[in-house]
UniProtKB/TrEMBL annotation:
Cellular component GO terms held in the UniProt record: plasma membrane
Keyword terms: ATP-binding, Cell membrane, Membrane, Nucleotide-binding, Transport
Family: Belongs to the ABC transporter superfamily.
InterPro entries, per database record: AAA+_ATPase, ABC_Ni/Peptide_Import, ABC_transporter-like_ATP-bd, ABC_transporter-like_CS, Oligopep_ABC_C, P-loop_NTPase
An annotated GO BP: peptide transport
Domain of life: Bacteria
Protein name: Peptide/nickel transport system ATP-binding protein
A Pfam family recorded for this sequence: ABC_tran
ABC transporter domain boundaries: 8-259
Subcellular location: Cell membrane
Topology relative to the membrane: Peripheral membrane protein
GO molecular function, one term: ATP binding
Amino acid sequence: MNDPDAFLVVEDLSVEFPTPDGPVRAVNNLSYTLGLGQTLGIVGESGSGKSVSSMAVLGLHDADRTKITGSIRVGGTEVVGLNEPGLRKLRGNSVAMIFQDALAALHPFYRVGSQLAEAYQVHHPSASRRDARRKAIEMLDRVGIPQPDSRVDDFPHQFSGGMRQRAMIAMGLINDPSLLIADEPTTALDVTVQAQILDLLQDLQREFNSAVVIITHDLGVIAEMADEVLVMYAGRCVEYGPTKEILVSPEMPYTWGLLSSIPDVSADIDARLIPIPGNPPSLLSPPSGCSFHPRCAHVDKVPGDLCATQLPELLEGSNGPGHVKRCHLANPQEVFRREVLAEIAPDLVEES
Ligand SMILES: Nc1ncnc2c1ncn2[C@@H]1O[C@H](COP(=O)(O)OP(=O)(O)OP(=O)(O)O)[C@@H](O)[C@H]1O
Ligand SMILES: [Mg+2]
């Protein structure tokens, strides 16, 4: 975090879409850094800007219809404002993305193997067709597709959901990217396949020492995979820090809500599952002050109408450097223990 020499440096990134109803500010002043060999988890409800911010890292937004400000440096190359040839080079050589929807990302009319081979040949123009096919089979084997020699000639619809997701990962990794962005790589899969895919991602990361951004709704995935976590709400970073701290002593009520709404926060059978009340806000007319205040149960603990009128700055909390949160509460740790932990994991509160 805050390492200006890291492989990925996102600084004050904002992404805005002009729409007939007015501008949609999907990402607001987002900053984070990520080193090689490290994994960053990005969490937040639907529509919080996770995909939009990550797509900006690959320069995937239509420049004519998107206003992007700030800076994104990948291996020292500035991505914001980079021209199409520059972007193409970047996407092949250093960055790859595994998309949310594998079926949509694989072309239905082309065989899986040809799509993999083409992805390889685009960035290895001197490779023969035979080399590219061999590489495609090798990658399918690497991601655990059985009989890769014959499955290489299947069409995407002949693959199961889990196999398609593996094929997407193979496609993402075929050019050994230094940075891999995995957008909900396992959401559509059953738990067993999900665990296998996550293991696979971890193995491949170790092998290639790549930087990985994993986007997910699932804090269980975060706990297993991420070194650091960035929590997004309504296009903003609301909490960011080392995974352990974010999961054990979070300081922002929205993060508490995410923790309370997952089933496995504690093995205690008495633990309760409490969904976050209300809906994510409209980005066309976001709430004043702290975007989360209309849904926050702790507004009355902050003097005056600060929460409704003033956007909290992203500031260091009581966990020390490297953990920042956007919240006006003066004593978040105490409130968390007394009101949140006591509800969702009473054993943990009694133990200490
Ligand atoms: N091209 C676009 N034009 C207008 N608004 C857009 C466009 N693309 C995305 N948005 C809006 O930007 C916001 C953030 O979208 P994004 O896809 O980043 O959400 P997300 O956090 O990835 O959600 P999910 O968990 O559902 O994938 C949403 O409100 C979305 O409707
Ligand atoms: Mg998304």
